[in-house]
Design brief:
The protein has 304 residues and is an alpha/beta fold. The chain contains ten helices and twelve strands. It has helices spanning 18-24, 47-59, 75-85, 104-109, 164-174, 187-196, 199-202, 227-243, 252-265, 270-282, and strands at 2-9, 32-39, 63-68, 90-94, 98-100, 116-123, 134-135, 146-149, 153-154, 161-163, 205-214, 300-302. The strands form two sheets. Strands 1, 2, 3, 4, 5, 6, 8, 10, 11 and 12 form a ten-stranded mixed beta sheet that branches. Strands 7-9 form a two-stranded antiparallel sheet. Helix 8 runs antiparallel to helix 9 (252-265). It starts with a strand and ends with a strand.
Length: 304
């Protein structure tokens, strides 16, 4: 089985990423793993760190490639870039701070008849609390491990294995997999909205198996969130509001009023408020305007 794993780093070294440590300790028997790492900023990775990590991948017989773009571009663009270009049976997305168990990839290998495979997600902040996957409509209703219909659930991007079958269905119906108008927060919400709206995808079977621990923003109190985080969450909420509307073109006045209410409720400063207004007008995250060169080359690469 061929599995592509994409890990997006942000202000983290390769050696410090919990996700990469977990992957290197995984059971990869009968699995051809192609590991793609994208450094999304804001500084380039250390050359020694790169060299050492590639040696570790080589010792584990993992094909690996490292790309760097320190502009902090949209996650949706990064996901789509590799989903469209690479060959695979399953495509797995990871943030840098997810802890998977050693059988994670074997769960995919042994259940390849499912369109999606995801772990039960627990926040590192409260490791006894099972957060995802949850019911599509009722986020407080957690889905237990086992089989589910894709249209009935949603979960986070990190740790979710997407089959080539599901990718092809979404491309056929919508011409994209991840909505590039969304950049960081709620890219997963929008992804599952898309599945929910696609009958051919919504009726497919998925499987929740295994366990993953992950840093969850929802477990961070409002007082601990800085202005940048508050603005990013505001972007995400606004974009969901826009694209869940049946007639988004006629909603701009209401959305401007909603933005004003968010300014006070979410304690946004004047600059953040102006940025949110621009989001309402252009109906997309400002980072979504950054493109990826289709011919971008990895910083370094091992090919086995």
């Amino acid at each position: 089985m061929k599995i592509n794993a994409l890990v997006v780093l942000y202000n983290s070294s390769l050696s410090d990423s919990m996700t990469l440590k977990s992957i290197l300790n995984s059971d990869l028997n009968e699995i051809e793993l192609n590991l793609v790492i994208w450094n999304n900023g804001s500084v380039l990775l250390d050359e020694y760190d790169i060299s050492n990590f590639l040696k570790l991948c080589n010792s584990k017989k993992i094909n690996s490639s490292i790309f760097q773009d320190i502009r902090n571009i949209s996650l949706s663009r990064i996901y789509n870039h590799f989903i469209y270009q690479l060959n695979y049976d399953f495509f797995v997305i990871f943030d840098q701070d997810s802890m998977i168990d050693s059988y994670f990839f074997q769960y995919i290998h042994c259940n390849s008849n499912y369109a999606m495979i995801c772990p039960a997600v627990y926040p590192k902040q409260r490791d006894e609390k099972h957060c995802f996957p949850c019911d599509y409509e009722l986020k407080d209703q957690v889905i237990s491990t086992g089989k589910f219909s894709l249209g009935d659930i949603r979960t986070i991007n990190s740790g979710t294995a997407i089959s080539k079958q599901l990718v092809n269905i979404l491309l056929t119906n919508h011409h994209y997999v991840f909505d590039e108008k969304f950049a960081f927060y709620h890219t997963d919400h929008r992804f599952f909205d898309l599945i929910h709206e696609t009958p051919e995808a919504a009726t497919l079977d998925g499987l929740c198996i295994g366990r993953m621990y992950h840093d969850m923003t929802c477990e961070v109190s409002f007082k601990e969130q800085n202005q940048r985080t508050r603005l990013e969450i505001a972007y995400a909420k606004m974009l969901l509001r826009i694209y869940r509307s049946k007639n988004p073109k006629n909603e701009i006045r209401r959305n401007l009023i909603y933005a004003y209410k968010m300014k006070h409720k979410d304690n946004l400063n004047f600059r953040s408020f102006i940025m949110l207004i621009k989001c309402v007008i252009f109906k997309r995250h400002p980072r979504s305007f950054y493109n990826i060169d289709k011919n971008i080359k990895p910083t370094n690469q091992t090919c086995l």
